[in-house]
Write a structure and sequence with these properties.
There is one protein chain. The model has no long low-confidence stretch (mean pLDDT about 90). Helix 2 runs parallel beside helix 4 and helix 4 packs antiparallel against helix 5. This protein is mostly helical and about 200 residues long.
C-alpha cells in the first residue's frame, strides 16, 4: 500500500512542481512530513542536505532519498527500501517527461501565441512563490537550532547562513567552495564544543 501512496504522491509533485527541484522541496516536505508522516522534519532536512551535495537535480535526489527513507522508517528490508526509492523517483520524473515531450513538440510553433505567453507569464510569480516557500520551510529549528536551547549553536548556524549568502551574492564564491568551507567550519565548531565523542 505504501508503494501506491509513494507513486501517487510523487506523481502529483512531479505534475505540479513548477520551478524545478527547489520549487518542489516545499511540496515534498508537505507530503512526506506533514501529510503522510513518513519521516520527521529533521530527517527531511538531512535528505535535502544530502541531495544538494550529491550529483543530479535536487528534486529528483530528494525524491530518491525520501522514497528510501519512507520504507526504512516503516521497517522494510533493504530491497524494499530500494524499490521505494525507485518508485518515488520514477513517479516524480514520469509526468515531467510526458509533459516535456508534448510541450517541446508544440512550443516552437505556438511560443508567440498570446494565450501561451499569458500562461507562461502567470507561472513566473508562482515559481518565485514556491522557491520562497522552500526557503522559509527550511528555516526551522532542525536547521538553525533554537536560540533559547542552544544560543551558541543558533548564532553559529545563523552566522554560516549570512556568510554563505554574502560570499555567494556579493563575492561570487562558487557554491561548491562554500559547501566545503561550511563543512570545515562545522567540524571545527563541533570539535570545539565537545560534540565529538572519543
Amino acid at each position: 500500500m505504501i508503494f501506491l501512496s509513494l507513486f501517487i504522491t510523487f506523481f502529483q509533485i512531479g505534475l505540479f512542481g513548477f520551478g524545478g527541484g527547489y520549487g518542489m522541496l516545499s511540496l515534498i516536505q508537505h507530503e512526506v512530513v506533514m501529510n503522510h508522516h513518513w519521516m520527521t522534519a529533521g530527517d527531511f532536512t538531512d535528505i535535502v542536505a544530502i541531495s544538494q551535495m550529491t550529483p543530479g537535480p535536487v528534486g529528483i535526489n530528494t525524491a530518491t532519498y525520501a522514497g528510501y527513507t519512507a520504507l526504512q522508517n516503516e521497517g522494510a528490508n533493504q530491497f524494499l527500501c530500494i524499490l521505494g526509492s525507485m518508485t518515488a523517483t520514477f513517479a516524480l520524473v514520469f509526468p515531467t517527461t510526458i509533459l516535456m515531450l508534448l510541450i517541446s513538440r508544440y512550443f516552437m510553433k505556438y511560443k508567440d501565441n498570446a494565450s501561451v505567453r499569458l500562461v507562461l507569464d502567470s507561472l513566473r510569480p508562482a515559481v518565485v512563490g514556491l522557491l520562497a516557500a522552500a526557503t522559509l520551510l527550511l528555516m526551522t529549528k532542525e536547521n538553525f537550532g533554537s536560540y533559547s536551547e542552544d544560543t551558541v549553536g543558533f548564532i553559529f548556524s545563523a552566522g554560516l547562513f549570512v556568510l554563505t549568502f554574502v560570499c555567494i551574492k556579493f563575492f561570487k564564491v562558487g557554491p561548491m567552495k562554500m559547501i566545503g568551507v561550511c563543512a570545515m567550519l562545522g567540524l571545527v565548531f563541533t570539535w570545539q564544543t565537545g560534540g565529538f565523542c572519543a
